[in-house]
Amino acid sequence: MRRLGVTLTSALTSALTSALALALALPATAAPPGASPGASPDARPGGPDPFRDGWSETVVDADQNLRGLAAVSRSEAWVTGESLTDGGPARVFRTTDRGRTWVDVSPELTEDLSFRDVEVHGRVAHVLAIGPGEASRIYRSTDGGASWTEAFRNTDEDAFYDCMAFYGGGKRGLAVSDPVDGKLRMLSTADRGRSWSVLPSRGMPASDGEFGFAASGDCLVTAGRSAFLITGGKRSRVLRSDDRGLTWTATPSGIPAGEAAGGFAGDFASPRHGIAVGGDFADADDTEDTTAFTRDGRTWTVGADLRHVGEDVSFLRGTRYAVATGDYGGSAGSSITSDGGATWKRVSTLGYHAIECVATVCWAAGSKGRVGRG
Questions:
Q1: Number of domains composing the chain
Q2: CATH assignment at residue 221
Q3: How far apart are CA 263 and CA 284, in angstroms?
Q4: pLDDT of 254-273, one tens digit each?
Q5: Which residues contact 322 (CB under 8 A, 6 or more apart)?
Q6: Predicted structure pTM score
Q7: Could you tell me if residue 282 is inside a domain?
């Protein structure tokens, strides 16, 4: 869709402590308030508090609007963005010391590009540039960002790639484009991103006017052998594939659709347990029905409202905790769920475009080069 350091600290509201205390007080066998009796059996109701010290925020590059994020570990993370200066270069930054210092590891000749997604597996990194025609590209590095090769350049003027995702291990991956000839287009790799090819469209449901949002790079995600595509536009759905992107089944997410509205991103604790978040970029203050969750990986239930736009969401692995965040048009904040997405508690007025949690740490990336760690 054609759409849309200095270190600071911010203490989060005491509401988080209350929310976590309530969740931790629940018996392990009982479903939390608002959750279905079939809540995730492989997710503990309790878990570590990722925000016990609040968000620690670093400005990496104030000229970059950061929307791509890969959290590798507690110490290592990558962020990508687009220049706020007309015609400026898109940048890639990497930290290996918990965000104390950031190194510019950008490819060369990236003027006028927009890096909206980054995926990292070991020493191999992929960065997705979005846009119409040749603006959509995938760059690949095998040495931690020291050097890059162009692995894919789109030559179809009707295609506009939004998001990419790799399956566990990083050998296979997918990228999604807005509809071409009435269907969302899927790009696939089976050799760790060295080469990419367009998949046949016969297994994709009709999707004219439906698209993925390049808000955070997480409109396309994987869990186990399954892939999930969160959409908006004329229809707001979650599409699922269990055969590496060849065929897809679509289910309404319950998040309201619209020209600039729908589901923006999702995350899954397992192929059965997931959360989708979204909103309306044309009316960011409308935060009604901005979350949905699934307990079987196929049917979706609308969750409690966020008090801010939902641009991205991430589970803390092994728990029912997940954190959603967003920052658009004055609607900003971060919220936490302790029951897999049924209920939410706003815990910060700081919002970001992208979030990913690993171990007991959440990383987030946002406007004007801001990176949060909590």
A1: 1
A2: 2.130.10.10
A3: 13
A4: 999 999 999 999 999 999 99
A5: 267, 269, 275, 313, 314, 315, 316, 336, 337, 340, 341, 357
A6: 0.88
A7: yes
Among 125, 131, 93, 140, CA closest to 112: 131
| Of 202, 259, 257, 267, nearest in space to 235 by CA | 257
* Cα torsion angle, 79, 80, 83, 89, sign: positive
Has residue 315 been placed in a domain? yes
Residue 244 is classified by DSSP as T
Reported residue count of the chain is 374
**How far apart, in whole angstroms, are the C-alpha atoms of residue 135 and residue 113?**
6
Structural domain of 263 = 6-373
CA dihedral 288, 270, 165, 213 (to 10 degrees): -10
Specify the pLDDT at position 319. Answer: 86
List pLDDT tens digits, range 301-349.
Answer: 999 999 999 999 999 988 889 999 999 988 999 999 999 999 999 999 9
Q: Which two tokens stand for residue 151?
A: 């692995």
* 106: its two tokens: 């950008």
Cα–chain center distance at 348: 19
Residue 281 CB partners (closer than 8 Å, separation 6+): 3, 4, 213, 260, 261, 309, 328, 329
Residue whose pair of structure tokens reads 């923006």 in the numeric block: 264
Residue 46 tokens read as 């309790």
Residue 1, in any domain of the structure = no
The region, left, alpha or beta by phi > 0 then psi within -120 to 50, assigned to residue 155 is alpha
Residue type at 72 in one-letter notation: V
Statement: residue 114 has pLDDT above 80:
yes
Q: Which residues contact 234 (CB under 8 A, 6 or more apart)?
A: 208, 209, 210, 257
C-alpha R_g of the chain: 19
**Mean pLDDT across the stretch 14-28?**
33
Instruction: Indicate whether 143 belongs to any domain.
Output: yes
pLDDT tens profile 214-256: 999 999 999 999 999 999 999 999 999 999 999 999 999 999 9
Helix (H) / strand (E) containing 52: none
Whole-number Å distance between alpha carbons of 43 and 329: 34
Q: Region 92-108: what's the mean pLDDT?
A: 98
Please give the angle made by the CA atoms of 323, 326 and 327, to the nearest 5 degrees: 150
In angstroms, rounded to a whole number, what is the distance separating the alpha carbons of residues 264 and 276? 7
Confirm if 207 and 183 have CB atoms less than 8 A apart.
yes
Report the chain's mean pLDDT, rounded to a whole number. 88
